[in-house]
Design a protein that fits this description.
The structure is a homodimer.
Chain A (H helix, E strand, L loop, with lengths): L2 H5 L9 E11 L8 H16 L7 E7 L3 E11 L8
Antiparallel strand pairs in A: 1-3, 2-3
Chain lengths: 87, 87
């Protein structure tokens, strides 16, 4: 997977903040059970919120449901001083 | 983000299994504190394991640490009958 190229666009963002991007892709053998991503989205957001100050205004969530592959993209911008909550 | 193109390669995988891919990118304002991804990796894997049968042999984890951007890619293959644990 060429992650470097995929994420390279984010490198041009202003330096005075942090940013976390989460991408999930779920490839299903059957066409049902497409709610796994929705569940994971909520639980992963809870995990992230434990470690970063997540401001609802600065979160972008995009879900795409296909016949066999569903994808979820979460993009979180964090002010520099809010990047660390508790290590 | 062009998720469709990025994940399109996985569409050619055999149909009798499920697959979950997780990608994280952390863009830091400073060069320290690069352990966030490691923490998130462990906690997100725990979240996923609640919902899917995750076999260690079928999990690929790749981390790349850059000066300002670190990335993490997790690729999980699940046998068809193991795709659902508890909804």
């Amino acid at each position: 997977m060429n992650l470097k190229r995929f994420f390279s666009r984010s490198a041009s963002a202003p330096a005075a903040r942090e940013r976390l991007q989460v991408l999930l892709a779920h490839e299903r053998a059957s066409s049902g059970d497409s709610d796994l991503l929705k569940t994971l989205r909520d639980e992963i957001m809870a995990v992230i919120a434990k470690h970063m100050q997540v401001d609802g205004d600065k979160v972008s969530v995009k879900m795409e449901r296909g016949a066999s592959v569903s994808t979820l993209a979460v993009d979180i911008e964090v002010p520099f001083d809010g990047g660390k909550k508790a290590a």
